[in-house]
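Retry 2 of 3 after timeout on previous attempt. Resubmitting structure tokens to design endpoint.
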């Protein structure tokens, strides 16, 4: 086990630094946008640039990796991340930030794919759970740590932007100087949405909703915290509560879903999400502790729904369909991350910050309702022994290579 951990030390160090920069960037930019006087709708448009770039990268990055290799592409993507945040400091115009955020979304998604591809080749059936737990904790600690850098500086000045760029640049060194062998090329995304719908309508519809859920909160959660009157430290704590809830709940939820009809777990997650959002709407920023607790509960079901969709689709797929179906889920998830912030941002513009939580609650309700309806349309014919193992995720979106439960050599 110790040798397995040693083999991914440099990779996890790069991941920690990259996620610290990501957490800083993701919380700092919405606050600066508010300080510039940009409307909630404009901020949601900027967020859409990020999610669009993120989705495109999941399809395009594997092509670059096949041409020049992991290390070179990783270096290019980290450089692009650094450039994107510095450009945000140089040109403070919302239309320019749409482009710059698109660049950062493209870069961070590609970096995720490379890191997870690298990690997949270092794991075996015996150490998979332990090593991916290390990866999840690394992502969580990095993101939360980066968010707490924001209260230490002034978002209206250039210093935090420069610190973020420095952190991204440092993330390149551990991987670039590593002597570990590069993994095999990432599988290119091949998606067939019609086949995905035939295999698992709930995975099809649920992927759109899970993208809307995580994309909307990830893009506008910082805006919500500031518009209800929280300080930057309190806002960072609220975002951390969401992440912590998602990290702690995924494995238990996944293991439960491995033992019963996954759609029942989807219904439970959706209904729990509705209740948690109702709790969150009942609390204000005057006493943030109940808000943190409610946010933690929302996070416990907000992030696992993507993995539930992947697992349900793979339960019903033929072995040669895993990559195709997972790629389809990835594309639908990306569509959700693009459209969710736009809709929620519009509602926030009209109705105020609480509309964001109401939007999340509505998406949870749709998720639970559709899963319940699908149970009436198709009985569960997959036994627990025939199910694919649930795989927990912590990042916004997985690429097809990691979403599939099989390895590259098995494809």
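Retry 2 succeeded. Sequence:
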């Amino acid at each position: 086990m110790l040798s397995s951990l040693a083999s991914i030390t440099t990779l996890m160090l790069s991941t920690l630094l990259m996620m610290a920069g990501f957490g800083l960037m993701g919380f700092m930019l919405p606050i600066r946008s508010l300080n510039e006087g940009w409307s909630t709708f404009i901020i949601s448009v900027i967020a859409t640039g990020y999610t669009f770039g993120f989705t495109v990268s999941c399809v395009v990055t594997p092509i670059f990796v096949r041409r020049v290799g992991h290390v070179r592409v990783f270096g290019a993507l980290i450089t692009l991340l650094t450039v994107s945040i510095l450009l945000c400091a140089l040109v403070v115009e919302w239309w320019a930030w749409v482009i710059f955020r698109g660049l950062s979304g493209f870069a961070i998604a590609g970096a995720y794919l490379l890191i997870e591809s690298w990690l997949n080749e270092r794991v075996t059936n015996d150490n998979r759970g332990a090593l991916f737990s290390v990866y999840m904790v690394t992502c969580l600690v990095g993101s939360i740590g980066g968010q707490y850098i924001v209260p230490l500086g002034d978002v209206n000045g250039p210093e935090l932007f420069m610190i973020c760029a420095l952190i991204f640049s440092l993330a390149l060194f551990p991987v670039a100087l590593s002597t570990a062998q590069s993994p095999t090329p990432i599988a290119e995304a091949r998606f067939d949405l019609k086949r995905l719908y035939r295999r698992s309508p709930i995975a099809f519809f649920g992927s759109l909703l899970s993208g809307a859920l995580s994309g909307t909160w990830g893009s506008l959660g910082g805006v919500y915290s500031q518009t209800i009157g929280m300080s930057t430290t309190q806002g960072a704590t609220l975002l951390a509560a969401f992440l912590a809830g998602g990290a702690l709940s995924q494995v238990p939820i996944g293991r439960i879903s491995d033992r019963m009809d996954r759609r029942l777990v989807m219904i439970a997650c959706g209904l729990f999400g509705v209740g948690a959002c109702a709790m969150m709407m009942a609390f204000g920023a005057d006493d943030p502790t109940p808000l943190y607790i409610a946010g933690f509960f929302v996070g416990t079901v907000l992030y696992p729904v993507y993995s539930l969709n992947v697992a349900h689709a793979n339960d019903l797929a033929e072995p040669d369909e895993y990559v195709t179906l997972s790629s389809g889920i990835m594309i639908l998830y990306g569509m959700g991350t693009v459209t969710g912030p736009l809709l929620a941002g519009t509602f926030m513009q009209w109705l105020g910050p609480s509309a964001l939580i109401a939007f999340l609650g509505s998406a949870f309700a749709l998720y639970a309702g559709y899963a319940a309806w699908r149970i009436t349309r198709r009985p569960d014919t997959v036994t627990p022994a025939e199910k694919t193992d649930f795989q927990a995720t912590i990042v916004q979106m997985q690429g097809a290579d990691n979403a599939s439960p099989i390895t590259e050599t098995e494809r």
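Attempt log closed. DSSP finds 16 helices and no strands in the chain.
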